[in-house]
Amino acid sequence: MSDIVQYTHRGPAALVTINRPDRRNALSRALIAELTEAFLRATTDPDARCVILTGTGSAFCAGMDLEELRGTLGDDADKVWDDAAKLSSLYELIYTLPKPTIAAVNGAAVAGGAGLVTVCDLAVSVPDAKFGYPEVRRGLVAAMVMPHLLRHVGERAARYLLLTGELIDAVEALHLRFINAVVGQDRLLEAADAWARSLAEGGPKALTTTKDLLRRCGNHALSVEELAKGSAEPRLTEECRHGLTAFFEKKPAPWSPK
C-alpha cells in the first residue's frame, strides 16, 4: 500500500485515510485499488472492531479523478467498463463489510466522494463540508450511488440532488439525514472515536448479523452490475466528452442556457 491510502489503528478502530490532498482526494484507479485493499484488510484485522474513513487536506473526496477519466472517453470502452466495475465493487465492499463503518467527513464530499459517505454506516461532518452529485452537469450519471442515497434521504431529496447537481452544506445534509452529526473541525476524529468505542461495546457477531439483516431489508432493485453499467455507458457518449471538455476549459457545457 502506498502513501495515497494510510491504514493505522485508532483505539478499537482501523483508521483509513485518503491521502491525495493535491488532487482533493479524487478517486483515481490507484486510489480505488488501495481503498479496496484497505477495507479487505480491515475485514480480517483482529484489532479493528470498526473502520473510520476520512481524508487529508481540505476535501474528503472530490469524486472521480476527471483528468484520468478524460483519457478513456469515447473510444476505450473496456477501460470504462473496468473502471466502473471496480468502483462499484468498492462501494459494495464497504456497504457489506461485516464491521461497522464511520465516515469522518473533513471537507467536500461530492460525486463519488458523496457515494463513499452513503455506503458507510454512520457519518459525521465538519460544518463547512459540501455534499452533492454534479455528474449530470458533465454529461455523467451517478448511477452507482442511487440506491444508497435513496435509503438515506428518500426519493424527493434524491431527485433534487441527482437531477439538479446542486451542492448542499452540512446543516442541510444533517436535515436530510444524509449524515448523522455535525461537529467542529477540531472534534471530528474525537466524535468518530466516541462512536467507535460505542460500537465496540456490541458483540462482533451481533453487529455483523445486524448489518446483514439491514442490508437484506433494503435490497437494491437493481444489481451491482446494472448500476455499474448505468454509470459506465454515459462515459462513452459525445455528451459526456463535450461536458468534460467544457469543465476543463472552464466554459459552460454546450447544453447550458445562454
Write a structural description:
- This protein has a single domain (5-186), classed as 2-enoyl-CoA Hydratase, Chain A, domain 1, CATH 3.90.226.
- Helices cover 47% and strands 16% of the residues.
- It has ten helices and ten strands.
- The strands form two sheets. A six-stranded mixed sheet has the order 1-2-3-5-7-10, with helices on both faces. Strands 4-6-8-9 form a four-stranded mixed sheet.
- α1 (29-44) links the parallel β2 (13-18) and β3.
- α1 (29-44) packs parallel to α3 and α3 (77-96) packs across α9.
- The mean pLDDT is 90.
Brief overview:
The protein is of the alpha/beta class. 47% of the residues lie in helices and 16% in strands. The protein has a six-stranded mixed β-sheet, with helices on both faces. The chain has a four-stranded mixed β-sheet with strand order 4-6-8-9.
Chart the SSEs and their pairings.
Blueprint: E1 5-10, E2 13-18, H1 29-44, E3 50-55, E4 59-61, H2 66-70, H3 77-96, E5 101-105, E6 108-110, H4 112-119, E7 122-125, E8 130-132, H5 146-164, E9 167-169, H6 170-175, E10 181-182, H7 188-200, H8 204-217, H9 224-232, H10 238-248
Helix pairs in contact: 1-3, 3-9
Q: How many distinct folded domains?
A: 1
Number of helices: 10
> What's the alpha carbon Rg, rounded to whole Å?
18 Å
Q: Which runs of at least 5 residues are low in confidence (pLDDT < 50)?
A: none
Cα end-to-end separation = 47 Å
Q: Percent of residues in beta strands?
A: 15-25%
**Name of the CATH homologous superfamily:** 2-enoyl-CoA Hydratase, Chain A, domain 1
Q: Write the CATH architecture name.
A: Alpha-Beta Complex
Number of strands: 10
- Approximate shape: globular
Q: Which percent bin holds the helix content?
A: 40-55%
Give helix and strand order, one letter per element, not per position: EEHEEHHEEHEEHEHEHHHH
The overall pLDDT, averaged over residues, is 90
CATH C-level category = Alpha Beta
